[in-house]
Amino acid sequence: MYDRILVPTDGSEETTCVIAHAAELAEAHGAELHAIYVINSSTFASLPMESSWEGVSDMLEEEGKSALEDARHVAEEYDVSLTTHLLEGPPNKEIVRYAELDGFDLIVMGTHGRGGIDRLLLGSVAERVVRASTVPVLTVRVGGEDDGPDVSATGKAHSSS
């Protein structure tokens, strides 16, 4: 059913269970697993001009490499190979672009499951990906107040009509 699975990571500890879920799916389907980290440089656009952009850029790149290395450690526990990619741009747009251009069958991503005012104020990369992607998206709820070690997963497929 799946030949190529994409799992975006933000480097947070919560993402570990999402990567494990994606690796388990890849193992079960004999699929390729790819992890991406998107450097969102627009987050630091408000820094004063005196700040060294080169220093910030280096820091963001190191953060991304570390997140991808963490993903590699999680994937090693499964019978899958992991390919990693470091991208730059708006995360939701880069995830969708990468998944569609490189022919992925599934995107597996974490979501905090926020609703109401929290979602309005904070936005959701996962929600934007679900809305924009022609590739099916499986969301895995992470970090909720009621969540223990068990993680509930909800498949969200979106297609253009």
Question: What does this protein look like?
Answer:
- Pfam families: Usp.
- InterPro entries: Rossmann-like_a/b/a_fold, Universal_stress_UspA, UspA.
- Residues 1-141 form the UspA domain.
- The protein has helices spanning 15-29, 53-75, 91-101, 116-122, 125-132; strands at 4-8, 32-39, 82-88, 106-111, 137-141, 153-156.
- The chain is of the alpha/beta class and 161 residues long.
- It has one domain (4-156): HUPs (Rossmann fold), CATH 3.40.50.620.
- It has a six-stranded mixed beta sheet with strand order 3-2-1-4-5-6, with helices on both faces.
- Strand 2 (32-39), helix 2 (53-75) and strand 3 (82-88) form a beta-alpha-beta unit.
- Helix 1 (15-29) packs across helix 2 (53-75) and helix 3 runs parallel beside helix 5.
- 34% of the residues are buried.
Uncertain segments = 146-161
Q: Separation of termini?
A: 22 Å
Q: What assembly state would you assign to the polypeptide chains in this entry?
A: single chain
CATH class: Alpha Beta
Tally the helices.
Answer: 5
Pfam family, one: Usp
Domain UspA: 1-141
Family: Belongs to the universal stress protein A family.
Protein name: Nucleotide-binding universal stress protein, UspA family
